[in-house]
Amino acid sequence: METLPCHDFDFTDGVNSQDGSQPEAWGRLFPLGSSFVAMDLTADEYTFGRGENCDVAFSSQAAKTHQCFQAYSKVHFKLIRNKTTTGTHTFLEDLSSNGTFVNGDKVGKGKRHVLNNNDEISLAVKQNKAYVFMDLNASEDSHLPKELVEKYTLTRVLGRGACGEVRLAFAKGSCEKFACKIISKKKFSVGGKTPVNLTSQVMGEVNILKALKHPCIIRIEDVVDTPEMLYIVLELVEGGELFDKVVAIDKYDEATGKLLFFQMATAIKYLHDQGITHRDLKPENILLATDDLETLIKVTDFGLSKFVDAGSMMKTFCGTPTYLAPEILLTAGSGTYTKAIDCWSLGVILFIMLSGYPPFSDERKDMDLPKQIMGGHFSFPKQYWSEVSDTAVDLIKQMMIVDPKKRITFADVLNHPWLKDDGMRTKAMALMYPDTDGMAPPKLPVAKRKATEGDEEPTRKRKSSKDD
Ligand code: ADP
Ligand code: MG
To answer: Is 283 in the pocket of ligand 1 (CB under 6 A)?
Structure first.
Protein backbone atom coordinates (compact mmCIF):
# COMPACT_ATOMS: atom_id res chain seq x y z
CA MET A 1 0.00 0.00 0.00
CA GLU A 2 1.14 3.45 -0.84
CA THR A 3 2.39 5.49 2.04
CA LEU A 4 1.81 9.16 1.60
CA PRO A 5 4.54 11.63 2.36
CA CYS A 6 4.19 13.24 5.74
CA HIS A 7 7.49 15.09 5.78
CA ASP A 8 8.30 14.02 9.30
CA PHE A 9 5.03 15.48 10.34
CA ASP A 10 4.01 13.95 13.59
CA PHE A 11 0.49 14.44 14.83
CA THR A 12 1.06 13.56 18.40
CA ASP A 13 -2.05 15.11 19.83
CA GLY A 14 -4.93 17.38 18.95
CA VAL A 15 -2.87 20.54 19.02
CA ASN A 16 0.50 21.43 17.69
CA SER A 17 2.26 22.09 20.92
CA GLN A 18 1.45 22.72 24.52
CA ASP A 19 4.30 25.01 25.40
CA GLY A 20 2.92 28.11 23.73
CA SER A 21 5.68 28.35 21.17
CA GLN A 22 3.28 27.63 18.33
CA PRO A 23 -0.33 28.64 17.92
CA GLU A 24 -2.96 26.01 18.36
CA ALA A 25 -4.13 24.22 15.24
CA TRP A 26 -7.76 24.68 14.27
CA GLY A 27 -7.71 22.38 11.29
CA ARG A 28 -5.73 19.74 9.54
CA LEU A 29 -5.29 18.70 5.93
CA PHE A 30 -4.70 15.10 5.10
CA PRO A 31 -3.25 14.26 1.69
CA LEU A 32 -5.36 12.20 -0.65
CA GLY A 33 -3.00 12.41 -3.60
CA SER A 34 0.62 11.37 -3.37
CA SER A 35 1.94 14.78 -4.42
CA PHE A 36 0.40 16.53 -1.41
CA VAL A 37 1.57 16.52 2.18
CA ALA A 38 -0.23 16.61 5.50
CA MET A 39 -0.33 19.85 7.42
CA ASP A 40 -1.76 21.46 10.52
CA LEU A 41 -3.60 24.75 10.02
CA THR A 42 -2.77 27.42 12.57
CA ALA A 43 -2.75 30.73 10.66
CA ASP A 44 -5.91 32.56 9.56
CA GLU A 45 -5.11 32.35 5.89
CA TYR A 46 -3.21 30.05 3.54
CA THR A 47 -2.62 30.21 -0.19
CA PHE A 48 -2.07 27.06 -2.24
CA GLY A 49 -0.73 26.85 -5.77
CA ARG A 50 1.99 26.35 -8.34
CA GLY A 51 3.62 29.69 -7.56
CA GLU A 52 6.68 29.74 -5.33
CA ASN A 53 5.19 32.52 -3.21
CA CYS A 54 2.26 30.48 -2.00
CA ASP A 55 2.16 29.41 1.63
CA VAL A 56 1.77 25.90 0.31
CA ALA A 57 3.64 25.76 -3.00
CA PHE A 58 3.18 22.62 -5.06
CA SER A 59 6.87 22.46 -5.81
CA SER A 60 7.91 18.95 -4.86
CA GLN A 61 9.20 16.63 -7.55
CA ALA A 62 6.08 14.49 -7.16
CA ALA A 63 3.86 17.54 -7.67
CA LYS A 64 5.79 18.81 -10.68
CA THR A 65 5.67 15.51 -12.49
CA HIS A 66 1.99 14.98 -11.75
CA GLN A 67 -0.21 15.00 -14.84
CA CYS A 68 -2.34 17.81 -13.42
CA PHE A 69 0.56 20.11 -12.53
CA GLN A 70 0.20 22.31 -15.61
CA ALA A 71 -3.49 22.74 -14.85
CA TYR A 72 -2.83 24.30 -11.44
CA SER A 73 -2.92 28.07 -11.14
CA LYS A 74 -0.12 30.11 -9.57
CA VAL A 75 -2.47 30.69 -6.68
CA HIS A 76 -5.02 27.94 -7.00
CA PHE A 77 -7.08 28.40 -3.86
CA LYS A 78 -7.07 30.01 -0.46
CA LEU A 79 -8.19 28.76 2.92
CA ILE A 80 -9.53 31.44 5.21
CA ARG A 81 -10.46 31.15 8.84
CA ASN A 82 -13.03 33.83 9.53
CA LYS A 83 -14.97 34.98 12.55
CA THR A 84 -18.55 35.72 11.53
CA THR A 85 -21.72 36.47 13.46
CA THR A 86 -22.59 32.79 13.35
CA GLY A 87 -19.27 31.66 14.73
CA THR A 88 -15.88 30.89 13.27
CA HIS A 89 -15.93 29.26 9.85
CA THR A 90 -13.42 28.04 7.34
CA PHE A 91 -13.83 29.19 3.75
CA LEU A 92 -12.25 27.88 0.63
CA GLU A 93 -11.85 30.57 -2.02
CA ASP A 94 -11.31 29.32 -5.56
CA LEU A 95 -8.80 31.45 -7.46
CA SER A 96 -8.08 29.08 -10.32
CA SER A 97 -9.19 28.96 -13.90
CA ASN A 98 -9.56 25.19 -13.97
CA GLY A 99 -11.36 25.05 -10.68
CA THR A 100 -11.17 23.85 -7.11
CA PHE A 101 -13.69 21.21 -6.10
CA VAL A 102 -15.24 20.48 -2.73
CA ASN A 103 -16.71 16.98 -2.54
CA GLY A 104 -16.75 16.89 -6.34
CA ASP A 105 -18.55 20.21 -6.83
CA LYS A 106 -16.72 23.04 -8.52
CA VAL A 107 -16.50 26.16 -6.37
CA GLY A 108 -15.71 28.48 -9.32
CA LYS A 109 -13.21 31.27 -9.78
CA GLY A 110 -13.67 34.08 -7.30
CA LYS A 111 -16.25 32.19 -5.29
CA ARG A 112 -16.12 30.97 -1.71
CA HIS A 113 -17.36 27.79 -0.13
CA VAL A 114 -17.75 27.01 3.58
CA LEU A 115 -15.54 24.08 4.38
CA ASN A 116 -16.86 21.44 6.73
CA ASN A 117 -15.20 18.66 8.63
CA ASN A 118 -14.27 15.79 6.30
CA ASP A 119 -14.77 17.76 3.08
CA GLU A 120 -12.63 16.64 0.17
CA ILE A 121 -10.70 19.14 -1.90
CA SER A 122 -9.78 18.34 -5.53
CA LEU A 123 -7.77 20.48 -7.89
CA ALA A 124 -8.20 21.15 -11.63
CA VAL A 125 -10.41 18.10 -12.17
CA LYS A 126 -12.67 16.57 -9.59
CA GLN A 127 -10.92 13.19 -9.84
CA ASN A 128 -7.65 14.76 -8.75
CA LYS A 129 -8.21 14.56 -5.01
CA ALA A 130 -5.72 16.57 -3.00
CA TYR A 131 -6.83 16.84 0.61
CA VAL A 132 -9.43 15.92 3.13
CA PHE A 133 -10.09 18.74 5.58
CA MET A 134 -10.48 18.09 9.24
CA ASP A 135 -12.03 20.77 11.42
CA LEU A 136 -10.43 20.07 14.77
CA ASN A 137 -13.22 21.82 16.64
CA ALA A 138 -15.92 19.86 14.90
CA SER A 139 -14.28 16.49 14.81
CA GLU A 140 -15.99 13.77 16.74
CA ASP A 141 -12.72 12.28 17.88
CA SER A 142 -13.59 12.91 21.49
CA HIS A 143 -16.04 10.00 21.34
CA LEU A 144 -13.41 7.66 20.02
CA PRO A 145 -11.41 5.44 22.35
CA LYS A 146 -7.95 6.59 23.32
CA GLU A 147 -6.25 3.48 21.93
CA LEU A 148 -7.67 4.30 18.53
CA VAL A 149 -6.95 8.04 18.37
CA GLU A 150 -3.44 7.49 19.65
CA LYS A 151 -2.68 5.58 16.49
CA TYR A 152 -5.16 6.80 13.88
CA THR A 153 -7.04 9.88 12.76
CA LEU A 154 -10.46 9.11 11.39
CA THR A 155 -11.88 11.21 8.58
CA ARG A 156 -14.68 10.86 6.06
CA VAL A 157 -17.16 8.01 5.65
CA LEU A 158 -16.16 5.54 2.93
CA GLY A 159 -19.24 3.40 2.99
CA ARG A 160 -22.05 2.08 5.11
CA GLY A 161 -23.14 -1.45 5.70
CA ALA A 162 -25.34 -3.62 7.82
CA CYS A 163 -23.54 -3.05 11.09
CA GLY A 164 -22.23 0.46 10.88
CA GLU A 165 -20.05 2.80 8.90
CA VAL A 166 -16.58 2.56 7.46
CA ARG A 167 -14.34 5.63 7.66
CA LEU A 168 -11.07 6.63 6.11
CA ALA A 169 -8.28 6.53 8.68
CA PHE A 170 -4.74 7.85 8.63
CA ALA A 171 -2.04 6.31 10.76
CA LYS A 172 -0.39 9.01 12.82
CA GLY A 173 3.18 9.67 11.86
CA SER A 174 3.25 7.71 8.60
CA CYS A 175 -0.09 8.92 7.21
CA GLU A 176 -0.63 5.48 5.76
CA LYS A 177 -4.28 5.15 4.84
CA PHE A 178 -6.66 2.54 6.23
CA ALA A 179 -10.36 1.90 6.46
CA CYS A 180 -11.90 1.78 9.93
CA LYS A 181 -15.09 -0.19 10.35
CA ILE A 182 -17.13 1.05 13.29
CA ILE A 183 -19.57 -1.45 14.69
CA SER A 184 -22.07 -0.68 17.37
CA LYS A 185 -22.42 -3.78 19.51
CA LYS A 186 -25.96 -2.84 20.38
CA LYS A 187 -26.94 -3.59 16.84
CA PHE A 188 -25.75 -7.15 17.26
CA SER A 189 -28.70 -7.97 19.45
CA VAL A 190 -32.02 -8.35 17.77
CA GLY A 191 -35.37 -8.15 19.50
CA GLY A 192 -33.78 -6.99 22.73
CA LYS A 193 -31.93 -10.25 23.25
CA THR A 194 -28.26 -9.74 23.82
CA PRO A 195 -26.35 -12.91 23.13
CA VAL A 196 -24.21 -13.81 26.11
CA ASN A 197 -20.49 -13.38 25.99
CA LEU A 198 -20.72 -11.40 22.82
CA THR A 199 -17.42 -9.62 23.22
CA SER A 200 -15.40 -12.77 23.53
CA GLN A 201 -17.25 -14.22 20.55
CA VAL A 202 -16.54 -11.18 18.47
CA MET A 203 -12.93 -11.15 19.49
CA GLY A 204 -12.58 -14.85 18.75
CA GLU A 205 -13.93 -14.15 15.32
CA VAL A 206 -11.69 -11.18 14.80
CA ASN A 207 -8.71 -13.29 15.78
CA ILE A 208 -9.62 -15.89 13.20
CA LEU A 209 -9.95 -13.20 10.57
CA LYS A 210 -6.66 -11.63 11.63
CA ALA A 211 -4.95 -14.92 10.93
CA LEU A 212 -6.22 -15.03 7.35
CA LYS A 213 -3.72 -14.10 4.74
CA HIS A 214 -4.79 -13.89 1.13
CA PRO A 215 -4.29 -11.12 -1.44
CA CYS A 216 -8.01 -11.15 -2.27
CA ILE A 217 -9.21 -10.96 1.30
CA ILE A 218 -9.21 -7.70 3.24
CA ARG A 219 -6.43 -7.66 5.79
CA ILE A 220 -7.23 -6.69 9.35
CA GLU A 221 -4.63 -4.28 10.65
CA ASP A 222 -5.85 -3.51 14.13
CA VAL A 223 -8.82 -3.99 16.41
CA VAL A 224 -9.97 -1.77 19.24
CA ASP A 225 -12.69 -3.23 21.40
CA THR A 226 -14.77 -1.19 23.85
CA PRO A 227 -17.89 -2.19 25.79
CA GLU A 228 -20.18 -0.50 23.29
CA MET A 229 -18.25 -0.37 20.07
CA LEU A 230 -15.86 -2.37 17.99
CA TYR A 231 -13.36 -0.63 15.71
CA ILE A 232 -11.72 -2.74 13.05
CA VAL A 233 -8.89 -1.12 11.16
CA LEU A 234 -8.69 -2.65 7.70
CA GLU A 235 -6.48 -2.45 4.70
CA LEU A 236 -7.88 0.35 2.51
CA VAL A 237 -9.26 -0.50 -0.89
CA GLU A 238 -9.60 2.46 -3.20
CA GLY A 239 -11.44 1.34 -6.31
CA GLY A 240 -14.94 1.17 -4.83
CA GLU A 241 -17.51 -1.60 -4.88
CA LEU A 242 -17.93 -4.12 -7.68
CA PHE A 243 -21.62 -3.25 -7.60
CA ASP A 244 -21.02 0.38 -8.60
CA LYS A 245 -18.58 -0.69 -11.28
CA VAL A 246 -21.05 -3.07 -12.93
CA VAL A 247 -23.67 -0.32 -12.88
CA ALA A 248 -21.18 2.14 -14.40
CA ILE A 249 -19.91 -0.10 -17.21
CA ASP A 250 -23.19 -1.95 -17.85
CA LYS A 251 -21.51 -5.37 -17.75
CA TYR A 252 -18.08 -6.98 -17.92
CA ASP A 253 -16.71 -8.46 -21.09
CA GLU A 254 -16.15 -12.17 -20.57
CA ALA A 255 -12.35 -11.98 -20.33
CA THR A 256 -12.35 -9.30 -17.63
CA GLY A 257 -15.26 -10.91 -15.81
CA LYS A 258 -13.30 -14.15 -15.73
CA LEU A 259 -10.20 -12.44 -14.35
CA LEU A 260 -12.18 -10.93 -11.47
CA PHE A 261 -14.29 -14.03 -10.88
CA PHE A 262 -11.20 -16.25 -10.69
CA GLN A 263 -9.86 -14.09 -7.86
CA MET A 264 -13.19 -14.24 -6.00
CA ALA A 265 -13.36 -18.01 -6.36
CA THR A 266 -9.75 -18.36 -5.17
CA ALA A 267 -10.48 -16.18 -2.15
CA ILE A 268 -13.66 -18.06 -1.19
CA LYS A 269 -11.97 -21.42 -1.70
CA TYR A 270 -9.27 -20.22 0.69
CA LEU A 271 -11.91 -19.17 3.25
CA HIS A 272 -13.67 -22.52 2.93
CA ASP A 273 -10.37 -24.35 3.38
CA GLN A 274 -10.08 -22.51 6.70
CA GLY A 275 -13.56 -23.70 7.64
CA ILE A 276 -15.11 -20.26 7.18
CA THR A 277 -18.29 -19.56 5.25
CA HIS A 278 -18.70 -16.01 4.02
CA ARG A 279 -22.53 -16.03 4.00
CA ASP A 280 -22.99 -12.54 2.66
CA LEU A 281 -21.45 -12.55 -0.80
CA LYS A 282 -22.82 -9.79 -2.98
CA PRO A 283 -21.24 -7.20 -5.26
CA GLU A 284 -21.27 -4.61 -2.44
CA ASN A 285 -18.90 -6.84 -0.51
CA ILE A 286 -16.43 -7.27 -3.34
CA LEU A 287 -14.13 -4.26 -3.43
CA LEU A 288 -11.86 -3.21 -6.28
CA ALA A 289 -8.26 -2.20 -5.64
CA THR A 290 -8.13 0.35 -8.48
CA ASP A 291 -10.34 2.03 -11.00
CA ASP A 292 -8.85 -0.07 -13.82
CA LEU A 293 -11.02 -2.75 -15.38
CA GLU A 294 -8.37 -5.40 -14.81
CA THR A 295 -7.78 -5.02 -11.13
CA LEU A 296 -7.15 -6.89 -7.92
CA ILE A 297 -10.32 -7.63 -5.98
CA LYS A 298 -10.79 -7.88 -2.23
CA VAL A 299 -13.57 -9.73 -0.50
CA THR A 300 -14.82 -7.95 2.59
CA ASP A 301 -17.46 -8.27 5.25
CA PHE A 302 -16.99 -11.95 5.92
CA GLY A 303 -17.28 -13.93 9.10
CA LEU A 304 -18.62 -11.08 11.16
CA SER A 305 -22.02 -11.58 9.60
CA LYS A 306 -22.29 -14.46 12.03
CA PHE A 307 -22.91 -11.94 14.79
CA VAL A 308 -25.51 -9.97 12.95
CA ASP A 309 -27.04 -13.15 11.78
CA ALA A 310 -30.61 -12.75 12.90
CA GLY A 311 -30.48 -9.09 12.00
CA SER A 312 -28.92 -9.33 8.60
CA MET A 313 -30.91 -12.39 7.66
CA MET A 314 -34.07 -10.53 8.64
CA LYS A 315 -32.94 -7.55 6.65
CA THR A 316 -32.33 -9.80 3.73
CA PHE A 317 -35.78 -11.28 4.14
CA CYS A 318 -37.38 -7.87 4.25
CA GLY A 319 -35.25 -6.60 1.42
CA THR A 320 -34.43 -8.25 -1.86
CA PRO A 321 -33.02 -11.77 -1.47
CA THR A 322 -31.20 -11.53 -4.79
CA TYR A 323 -28.07 -13.37 -3.60
CA LEU A 324 -29.62 -15.64 -1.01
CA ALA A 325 -29.33 -19.37 -1.62
CA PRO A 326 -32.66 -21.22 -2.04
CA GLU A 327 -32.05 -23.48 0.98
CA ILE A 328 -32.02 -20.38 3.22
CA LEU A 329 -35.36 -19.24 1.82
CA LEU A 330 -36.80 -22.75 2.01
CA THR A 331 -36.14 -22.97 5.73
CA ALA A 332 -36.90 -19.28 6.34
CA GLY A 333 -33.44 -18.76 7.76
CA SER A 334 -33.69 -21.36 10.49
CA GLY A 335 -31.93 -24.31 8.91
CA THR A 336 -28.34 -25.46 8.99
CA TYR A 337 -26.40 -24.36 5.98
CA THR A 338 -23.15 -25.38 4.49
CA LYS A 339 -20.55 -23.42 2.61
CA ALA A 340 -22.51 -24.25 -0.55
CA ILE A 341 -24.51 -21.06 0.12
CA ASP A 342 -21.43 -19.06 -0.92
CA CYS A 343 -21.29 -20.91 -4.20
CA TRP A 344 -24.85 -19.96 -5.04
CA SER A 345 -24.24 -16.29 -4.19
CA LEU A 346 -21.09 -16.15 -6.29
CA GLY A 347 -22.99 -17.77 -9.14
CA VAL A 348 -25.52 -14.93 -8.96
CA ILE A 349 -22.66 -12.42 -8.93
CA LEU A 350 -21.13 -14.03 -12.04
CA PHE A 351 -24.51 -13.94 -13.77
CA ILE A 352 -24.78 -10.21 -13.06
CA MET A 353 -21.20 -9.44 -14.06
CA LEU A 354 -21.59 -11.04 -17.47
CA SER A 355 -25.10 -9.83 -18.27
CA GLY A 356 -25.54 -6.61 -16.30
CA TYR A 357 -28.84 -7.70 -14.76
CA PRO A 358 -29.86 -10.06 -11.92
CA PRO A 359 -31.13 -13.59 -12.63
CA PHE A 360 -34.27 -13.09 -10.54
CA SER A 361 -36.62 -10.19 -10.81
CA ASP A 362 -39.37 -8.62 -8.75
CA GLU A 363 -41.00 -7.48 -11.94
CA ARG A 364 -41.80 -10.98 -13.06
CA LYS A 365 -45.58 -11.29 -13.09
CA ASP A 366 -46.07 -15.07 -12.98
CA MET A 367 -43.86 -15.81 -9.97
CA ASP A 368 -42.65 -13.91 -6.92
CA LEU A 369 -38.96 -13.61 -6.13
CA PRO A 370 -38.63 -16.34 -3.48
CA LYS A 371 -40.45 -18.77 -5.74
CA GLN A 372 -38.11 -17.97 -8.63
CA ILE A 373 -35.09 -18.59 -6.38
CA MET A 374 -36.36 -21.72 -4.63
CA GLY A 375 -37.35 -23.24 -7.96
CA GLY A 376 -34.17 -22.08 -9.69
CA HIS A 377 -36.19 -20.30 -12.36
CA PHE A 378 -33.66 -18.28 -14.31
CA SER A 379 -32.64 -18.35 -17.94
CA PHE A 380 -30.12 -17.03 -20.41
CA PRO A 381 -32.10 -15.26 -23.14
CA LYS A 382 -30.17 -14.94 -26.42
CA GLN A 383 -30.67 -11.20 -26.62
CA TYR A 384 -28.45 -10.68 -23.55
CA TRP A 385 -26.27 -13.78 -23.61
CA SER A 386 -25.35 -14.25 -27.26
CA GLU A 387 -21.80 -12.97 -26.71
CA VAL A 388 -21.15 -15.10 -23.63
CA SER A 389 -19.58 -18.55 -24.13
CA ASP A 390 -21.44 -21.79 -23.35
CA THR A 391 -18.71 -22.71 -20.87
CA ALA A 392 -19.36 -19.60 -18.80
CA VAL A 393 -23.10 -20.30 -18.84
CA ASP A 394 -22.42 -23.90 -17.81
CA LEU A 395 -20.42 -22.78 -14.78
CA ILE A 396 -23.20 -20.38 -13.69
CA LYS A 397 -25.76 -23.19 -14.03
CA GLN A 398 -23.63 -25.51 -11.88
CA MET A 399 -23.14 -22.87 -9.19
CA MET A 400 -26.85 -22.15 -9.15
CA ILE A 401 -28.12 -25.68 -8.70
CA VAL A 402 -30.99 -25.46 -6.21
CA ASP A 403 -30.04 -28.61 -4.27
CA PRO A 404 -26.94 -27.65 -2.25
CA LYS A 405 -25.76 -31.26 -2.27
CA LYS A 406 -25.65 -31.30 -6.05
CA ARG A 407 -24.18 -27.83 -6.40
CA ILE A 408 -20.59 -27.57 -7.60
CA THR A 409 -17.92 -26.98 -4.89
CA PHE A 410 -15.28 -24.30 -5.06
CA ALA A 411 -12.54 -26.82 -5.68
CA ASP A 412 -14.45 -27.89 -8.79
CA VAL A 413 -15.25 -24.30 -9.72
CA LEU A 414 -11.52 -23.67 -9.98
CA ASN A 415 -11.15 -26.80 -12.12
CA HIS A 416 -14.04 -25.90 -14.39
CA PRO A 417 -13.10 -25.61 -18.10
CA TRP A 418 -14.06 -21.90 -18.10
CA LEU A 419 -11.22 -21.15 -15.69
CA LYS A 420 -8.69 -23.30 -17.54
CA ASP A 421 -7.23 -20.24 -19.17
CA ASP A 422 -3.48 -19.77 -18.80
CA GLY A 423 -3.46 -16.19 -20.03
CA MET A 424 -6.09 -15.18 -17.48
CA ARG A 425 -4.36 -17.06 -14.68
CA THR A 426 -1.01 -15.44 -15.41
CA LYS A 427 -2.66 -12.01 -15.24
CA ALA A 428 -4.51 -12.89 -12.03
CA MET A 429 -1.36 -14.17 -10.35
CA ALA A 430 0.51 -11.00 -11.35
CA LEU A 431 -2.23 -8.91 -9.73
CA MET A 432 -2.34 -11.09 -6.63
CA TYR A 433 1.40 -11.51 -6.14
CA PRO A 434 3.05 -8.48 -7.76
CA ASP A 435 6.18 -8.75 -5.62
CA THR A 436 7.00 -12.30 -6.65
CA ASP A 437 6.39 -12.01 -10.38
CA GLY A 438 3.01 -13.67 -10.09
CA MET A 439 4.26 -16.69 -8.12
CA ALA A 440 2.15 -17.71 -5.15
CA PRO A 441 4.17 -18.23 -1.98
CA PRO A 442 4.55 -22.00 -1.47
CA LYS A 443 2.51 -22.36 1.70
CA LEU A 444 -0.30 -20.07 0.69
CA PRO A 445 -3.50 -22.02 1.45
CA VAL A 446 -2.74 -22.36 5.14
CA ALA A 447 -3.15 -19.20 7.17
CA LYS A 448 -0.41 -18.70 9.71
CA ARG A 449 -1.87 -18.70 13.17
CA LYS A 450 -0.14 -17.65 16.29
CA ALA A 451 -0.16 -20.45 18.83
CA THR A 452 -0.89 -17.93 21.55
CA GLU A 453 -4.13 -16.69 20.13
CA GLY A 454 -6.10 -19.26 22.06
CA ASP A 455 -9.22 -19.20 19.95
CA GLU A 456 -10.82 -22.34 18.76
CA GLU A 457 -9.61 -24.17 15.75
CA PRO A 458 -11.59 -22.49 12.99
CA THR A 459 -12.32 -25.52 10.86
CA ARG A 460 -14.13 -27.35 13.56
CA LYS A 461 -15.81 -24.30 14.97
CA ARG A 462 -17.28 -23.22 11.70
CA LYS A 463 -18.07 -26.54 10.11
CA SER A 464 -21.65 -25.53 9.66
CA SER A 465 -22.45 -21.91 9.53
CA LYS A 466 -25.80 -21.45 11.15
CA ASP A 467 -25.62 -23.20 14.47
CA ASP A 468 -22.36 -21.83 15.78
P1 ADP B 1 -21.01 -4.12 6.57
O2 ADP B 1 -20.74 -5.33 7.37
O3 ADP B 1 -21.48 -3.05 7.49
O4 ADP B 1 -21.83 -4.35 5.34
P5 ADP B 1 -18.71 -3.68 4.85
O6 ADP B 1 -17.44 -4.30 5.25
O7 ADP B 1 -19.44 -4.29 3.71
O8 ADP B 1 -19.60 -3.55 6.13
O9 ADP B 1 -18.48 -2.15 4.54
C10 ADP B 1 -19.50 -1.30 4.09
C11 ADP B 1 -18.98 -0.47 2.92
O12 ADP B 1 -17.85 0.32 3.33
C13 ADP B 1 -18.45 -1.30 1.76
O14 ADP B 1 -19.48 -1.71 0.90
C15 ADP B 1 -17.46 -0.34 1.11
O16 ADP B 1 -18.11 0.61 0.31
C17 ADP B 1 -16.86 0.36 2.31
N18 ADP B 1 -15.65 -0.35 2.77
C19 ADP B 1 -15.61 -1.42 3.59
N20 ADP B 1 -14.36 -1.85 3.78
C21 ADP B 1 -13.58 -1.04 3.07
C22 ADP B 1 -12.15 -0.97 2.85
N23 ADP B 1 -11.32 -1.83 3.43
N24 ADP B 1 -11.69 0.00 2.03
C25 ADP B 1 -12.54 0.87 1.45
N26 ADP B 1 -13.86 0.86 1.60
C27 ADP B 1 -14.39 -0.07 2.40
MG1 MG C 1 -21.31 -5.10 3.46
So the answer is: no
Domain presence at residue 330: yes
Do 118 and 156 form a contact (C-beta atoms < 8 A)?
A: yes
Same domain, 69 and 188: no
Structural domain boundaries, residue 341: 242-467
- Least confident range from 84-98, 160-174, 282-296: namely 160-174
Its pTM surpasses 0.85: no
Atom of ligand 1 nearest to the CA of 240: 16
CA 164 to ligand 2 centroid distance, Å: 9
Q: Is 372 helix (H, G, I), strand (E, B) or coil?
A: helix
pLDDT above 90 covers what percent of the chain?
Answer: 53
The model's pLDDT over 371-406, given as tens digits with 9 standing for 90+, comes to: 999 999 999 999 999 999 999 999 999 999 999 999
Contacts of residue 249, defined as CB under 8 A and 6 or more positions apart, other chains included, come to: 293
For ligand 1, whether the C-beta of 300 sits within 6 Å is yes
Across the chain, how many H-helices and E-strands are there?
Answer: 14, 18
Q: What CATH number did the domain enclosing 56 receive?
A: 2.60.200.20
Number of domains in the chain: 3
Q: How far is the CA of 309 from the centre of ligand 1 (A)?
A: 17
Q: What is the mean pLDDT of residues 176-203?
A: 65
Assess if residue 295 is contained within a domain: yes
